[in-house]
Design goal:
alpha/beta; TIM Barrel; two-stranded antiparallel sheet; 10 strands
Length: about 280
């Protein structure tokens, strides 16, 4: 896809964030590769072990990944809850190994826990990706402010265990705009300067609501923040197509929806399949 296609959006893209005290350009969309150091993530191919972690990251780098997103807590519905110690034991060694092997690679840590975020930043994480929007642990705000860490603010109601029971909205878009506006204000008052918005596809939303939000994705640009979109192989695709997460048809559906997201102003695509996303952008 040619980059000129994204110029049709209603509001201008936020073109950069500051990472490691340097500007990270988002005028051309970037690819965030998903690496799960968990045994129970919904897409089995994204799960890694100590033995294959670096080879998977290297492959993604060669395919065009600019950011790697490390997660140690599966947020799929029905996933097993783990304690802070277990999450730390999963993510900190992974961050340290990746940072040492690929020092130029930007590392995002997918966590809603303030202590995990703090330890992850100290180990080398550059971005905190919080599915809860600091609703589960408000202390997260102070952590990212203290370390001047870019923060991915996602929309979700409840917790991963309860979110799919919390899908009733009077006006989903208006409620999400209010949610983001209030939380952006809290973050900025605390001193957090680099905020990325994630609508949270699949989190406390029905399949129809997910597609409605995708159709209105460009309207979120009114918030003046870069958009991160995570559609990769999610149930809104494979349930609609009557396929499985690992099927090629599900990947084809992901590519189609990612193309729409790019046309509507997405700055970062969070994906399992880096090459296909990179090819869309370039």
């Amino acid at each position: 896809m040619q980059n000129s296609k994204v110029e049709d959006t209603k509001f201008p893209r936020n073109s950069s964030i500051r990472v490691r005290d340097m500007l990270f350009d988002l005028s051309t969309p970037k690819v965030m590769g998903i690496v799960n150091v968990t045994p129970d993530s919904f897409y089995s191919e994204s799960r890694t072990t100590e033995g294959n972690l670096l080879s998977i990251v290297e492959k993604m780098l060669n395919e065009g990944m600019q950011i790697v997103d490390i997660g140690g807590y599966s947020s799929r519905p029905g996933a097993t809850n783990i304690n802070v110690k277990e999450e730390l034991n999963r993510v900190i060694p992974a961050i340290s190994v990746i940072q040492k092997a690929f020092p130029e690679l930007i590392i995002s840590l997918d966590t809603f826990r303030a202590e995990v975020a703090k330890q992850g930043i100290l180990a080398g994480a550059d971005i905190i990706n919080d599915i809860s929007g600091f609703s589960i642990e408000p202390e997260m705000v102070n952590v990212v402010a203290k370390y001047h860490t870019p923060y991915v603010l996602m929309h979700m109601r409840g917790t991963p265990e309860t979110m799919q029971n919390l899908t009733d909205y009077d006006s989903i878009f208006n409620e999400m705009i209010l949610y983001f506006s209030q939380k952006i204000d809290i973050l900025q008052q605390a001193g957090v300067k680099d905020i990325i918005i994630d609508p949270g596809f699949g989190f406390s939303k029905t399949i129809d609501q997910n597609y409605y939000l995708l159709d209105h994705l460009d309207d979120f640009l009114i918030l003046g923040k870069p958009l991160l979109v995570g559609l990769s192989r999610k149930s809104m695709i494979y349930k609609r197509m009557n396929t499985k997460p690992e099927d090629r048809e599900t990947l084809d559906g992901t590519i189609a929806l990612n193309k729409i997201a790019l046309q509507k102003g997405a700055s970062i695509l969070r994906v399992h399949d880096v090459k296909e996303a990179f090819d869309l952008i370039n």
